[in-house]
Structure formats: structure tokens, C-alpha cells
Amino acid sequence: MDEETAHIKSRKEIRKEMEDAEKKYQGYLERRNEFNDKARVMREERDLLHEKRKEVMTRVNALREKKNKALNELRKHKERRNALHKRAHELIDLKRAKRGLKRRDSISMELGSLKDHLRKLEYRQETTPLSLENERDIIDEIRKGYKVLKELEKECAEVEEVNEEIKTLNGQLDNLFKEADTEHELVVKYYESSREFQEKMDGIIKEVSHLIAEADKKHEAFLEFRKKGDEFHQKAMEMRNHLNDIRKENRARYLEIKRLITEQNKAARQAVADKKKLKQKYEEAYDELKNKKKISL
Fold first, then answer.
1. Alpha helices, H only, the chain
2. Any idea of the CA torsion for 107, 110, 112, 114, to the nearest 10 degrees?
3. At what angle do helices 104-127 and 132-290 cross, to 10 degrees?
4. Alpha-carbon distance 69 to 89, whole Å?
5. Among 203, 212, 205, 204, which Cα is nearest to 51's?
6. Separation between Cα atoms, residue 252 and residue 211, nearest integer Å
């Protein structure tokens, strides 16, 4: 009876151990699934943030392209404006150099004064009695005067030509400055455009930085939940192995008990068979005794 009670108690303990192991195994699975669900949610939210970041970066790239185009236009017109200013300053220097020549008015006055002087000398030569020496001096002065007159007339023509060139230069300068002003306006326009695009980009980049930070947080949470899920999965697998070991042990115990019971049943049947055989011998001996035969057991 004690062995039987001990045997029953041992089976109850094993059953209790299996039930506890099964509960722990299911609990670990539930915790694993819980953390895996949380990890999946974090991964999905992280992926959504990454998609949104890609969309925002598409806008940034479009603005960056527009900004670069504006900067290229700015540089082009700035170079054009600077080239016009350089040409204008060159023309100004040329005009100043030409203005360094005698002015046309002063040359005209000098030319008129010389002509009057020559007329007076010629009139004096023609109307005034002169000695041979005086007349020769007047003729020499007249000759020299006409020589100077030709030089002055030539210089006057050159000054007139320079003045025409200066007028042309002034017209060119006016055109250059107008073009330079137009180019400068375009420079300012494209500078403002590039600055506007940059301001928009700065705002969007802040949004991108926020999205990246949030995505990083979601990714860290995803990794943490996945790690927890893996830990509980590992515990669940260990508990499943432990449960399988208990089942194997219980199965082995069951088979051992079954073997023992089988052997006991066999022994019992053998014992019963031996009793029947002994009884038969007794009955045969009794019959021989009655018939006065020699009894042989």
C-alpha cells in the first residue's frame, strides 16, 4: 500500500511539474508575442517615418535644384555685369585721356588770333613802306605763322575727331551702364530667389532632422522590443525542451511501470498454474490411495 501510495504521489508530482512547465511555456510565448507585436508596431512606425523623410527629401532636392539654377543664373549675370563695369571703366579712362588734349574752344581762339595777326602782318607789308630788312622779317614771321596755322588747324581737326569719339564713348557708356543695371537687377533677383529657396530648404531640413530623430527613437524601441521578444522566445524554447524532457521521463516511467506490472501479472499467472498442477497431483495421489496403489508424488 505504501509503495502504491508513493507511486501515485510521484505521478501527481510529475503531472504538477508538467502543468507548471506548460503554464510557464505558454506565458513565455504570450510575452514573446506581446513584445514581437510591439516591435512590429515600432518597425511600421519607423518605416512610415522613413517614407515621409524620403518624400520630404524629394521636396528638398527639388528646391536645391531650383536654388542651384538660380545661383548659376546669378553667377552668369554677375560676370556679365562685372564685365560691363570693367569695359565702362576702360572707356572712362580712355575718355579722360582724350580730354587731356587741348579743348576745341581754346584751339579755335588761338587759331582765330593767329589768323588776325597774319592778316595784320600782310596788310602792313602791303601798305607800309619798309626797309628791306624789316620786310624780310615780316615775311619770315608770316611764313612761320602760316606753318603754325597749319599745325593748329590739324590739331583742331584732331580735337574735333576726339570730341566725336568722346560722344561715341559717352553713348557706349550709357548703354553699358544700362546693361550693367539690368544685369545687376537680375543678380539681385536671382540672389533673392536663391535665398528664398534656401530658407524653404532650411525649414524642410529641420523637419527632416525631426523625422530622422523620431525614426531613430522608433528604431531603438523596435530593437529593444525585438530583444525582449527574443529573450522570451529563448526562455519559451528552453521551457519547451524542459517540458519534453519531463514528458520523456514520464513516458519512460510509464513504460517501466507497465513492464513491471506485466512481469508481476506473468508471475501471478505462473503461480496460479503451479497451484492447479499441485492440486492435480494431490487428487491423483488420493485416487491411488483409494485404489491401494503406490503413491508417487
1. 2-99, 104-127, 132-290
2. -140
3. 170
4. 30
5. 212
6. 60
Give 289's pLDDT tier (boundaries 50, 70, 90).
low
- Distance spanning both ends of the chain, measured CA to CA: 38
- Kindly report whether the global pTM for this prediction surpasses the value 0.70: no
Written as nine digits, the cell of 13 is 508530482
Question: What's the pLDDT tens digit per position in 209-250?
Answer: 888 888 888 889 888 988 888 998 898 888 889 888 878 877
Cα 130 to Cα 126: distance, rounded to the nearest angstrom: 9
pLDDT, residue 172, reads 73
Three cell numbers, residue 90: 576702360
The three cell numbers locating residue 117: 595777326
- CA 42 – CA 296 distance, rounded (Å): 96
Query: What does the pLDDT read at residue 209?
Result: 83
Written as one letter, the residue type at 230 is D
Place of cell 576702360: 90
Q: Given CA atoms 89, 91, 95, 100 in this order, what sign does their dihedral have? A: positive
CB distance 96 to 169 below 8 Å = no
Rounded CA-CA distance 244/250 in Å is 10
Q: Break the chain into its structural domains and give their ranges.
A: 2-280
**pLDDT per residue over 173-218, tens digit each?**
777 778 878 888 888 888 888 888 888 888 877 887 888 888 888 8
> Higher confidence at residue 293 or residue 169?
169
* Residue partners of 139: CB distance under 8 A and separation at least 6: 125
Q: Please report the sign of the dihedral spanned by the C-alpha atoms of residue 37, residue 38, residue 43, residue 45.
A: positive
